[in-house]
UniProtKB/TrEMBL annotation:
Catalytic activity: 2 reduced [2Fe-2S]-[ferredoxin] + NADP(+) + H(+) = 2 oxidized [2Fe-2S]-[ferredoxin] + NADPH
Similarity section: Belongs to the ferredoxin--NADP reductase type 1 family.
EC number: 1.18.1.2
Enzyme class: oxidoreductase
One matching Pfam family: NAD_binding_1
InterPro entries in the cross-refs: FAD-bd_FR_type, FNR_bac, FNR_nucleotide-bd, FNR_type-1, OxRdtase_FAD/NAD-bd, Riboflavin_synthase-like_b-brl
Biological process according to GO: cellular response to oxidative stress; heme catabolic process
Protein name (database record): ferredoxin--NADP(+) reductase
Ranges of residues in domain FAD-binding FR-type: 7-113
Organism phylogeny: Bacteria, Pseudomonadati, Pseudomonadota, Betaproteobacteria, Burkholderiales
UniProt cross-references to Gene3D superfamilies, sorted A to Z: Nucleotide-binding domain of ferredoxin-NADP reductase (FNR) module (3.40.50.80), Translation factors (2.40.30.10)
Keywords noted in UniProt: Nucleotide-binding
Length: 268
């Protein structure tokens, strides 16, 4: 890891690469620089240098949520490959030992402290929008604040249910079937695929499940603003639609330092 005091970013080596779906989904870990502190749910700006001019600052930067916990000794990111994208195919090509640049300042407001600190915490995400929730789930304070945590992960196909072992381990008090609901008194994991049937699960978009009440039925918990604190992350169209439905039920983000019951992060 190298850094110059006047640089707004640090360079750090990739230590691990994991392929979840070849050519589409991967995660990578890098060494964490002391002093890079963040709140679970925030994102970093990652930069890739031009291999022809490795001494120069990156000109290409993209936002990536931290998947690793705020106290983990490493940083982990979870990424899709957009085949025509400028950044993600190059990120996907990194191997252990290659260098990644990271802006020293973490960003973002998809953090649990923006929400009322009681009731049920719903972590609803599509695709790579699961990432920040994995970081949030590592926070002890979150488990202390909320009665129950419900993770809803919407993907196109079953193989895109990344980190499902991590999530099933959190739910290990409960019977666990290959793809279906897993849960215990404090935690529930709802994997939802839209382009493939998962045994026992609806094959529907998350917005449909919110609107028709099936999500609340699956969780056996009402999606009402008195009790539910909701995060939405991932596909911006999903977020626009879900946000509208939830607003009509009385959900609203916090304002001017006051906590709310809705927090959102668009990925593009
Ligand atoms: C706050 C924030 C946090 C983000 N965190 C992550 C993250 O943790 N992991 C991650 O993979 N991406 C994340 N993104 C998106 C990321 O910054 C890049 O846009 C993405 O990696 C693609 O970069 P690109 O240059 O290859 O393509 P871009 O030119 O940036 O994107 C091209 C198109 O690809 C699609 N697209 C972009 N990102 C995604 C995605 N994540 N899933 C599905 N389709 C997508 C959209 O249609 C977009 O218009 C985040 C974005 C924001 C704003
Ligand atoms: N490298 C490759 O081979 C490859 C292959 C495929 C995709 N990709 C890249 O990956 C990107 C897609 O990633 P992704 O599948 O994680 O993201 P996505 O298109 O956002 O889909 C994730 C989930 O969100 C759902 N969704 C989409 N729009 C919604 C809306 N308005 N309301 C509610 N739910 C909605 C999808 O349902 P639906 O199924 O109903 O849309 C799906 O279940 C593509 O843009 C492409 O760049 C790469």
């Amino acid at each position: 890891m190298t850094t110059l005091p006047d640089e707004k970013f640090f360079r750090t080596p990739v230590t691990d690469v994991r392929t979840w779906v070849p050519g589409k989904l991967f995660s990578l870990r890098v060494e964490r620089q002391p002093g890079f502190d963040f709140t679970a749910g925030q994102f970093a700006r990652l930069g890739l240098q031009d291999p022809a001019t490795p001494e120069e600052a990156p000109t290409l930067w993209r936002a990536y949520s931290m998947v690793s916990g705020a106290s983990d000794p490493y940083l982990e990111f979870y990424s899709v490959v957009v085949p025509e994208g400028q950044f993600s195919p190059r990120l996907a090509a990194l191997q252990p030992g290659d260098m990644l640049c990271i802006d020293r300042t973490p960003f973002g407001f998809l953090t649990a402290d923006r929400l009322h600190q009681n009731g049920d915490l719903w972590l609803i995400g599509t695709g790579t929008g699961l990432g920040p929730y994995l970081s949030i789930l590592k926070e002890q304070s979150v488990w202390q604040a909320f009665d129950r945590i419900i993770v809803v992960h919407g993907v196109r196909h079953a193989d895109e249910l990344a980190y499902r072992d991590t999530l099933s381990n959190l739910a290990d008090q409960a019977p666990w079937c290959d793809w279906g609901v897993a849960g215990n008194d404090r935690f529930l994991y709802l994997p939802i695929a839209t382009r493939e049937a998962l045994p026992g699960m609806p094959q529907e978009r998350l917005t449909t499940l919110i609107e028709n009440g099936d999500l609340a039925r699956l969780a056996d918990s009402p999606l009402d603003p008195q009790r539910a604190r909701v995060m939405l992350c991932g596909n911006p169209d999903m977020i626009t639609q879900a946000r509208k439905m939830l607003s009509e039920r009385g959900f609203a983000p916090g304002r001017r330092g006051a906590q709310g019951n809705l927090a959102v992060e668009n990925y593009w």
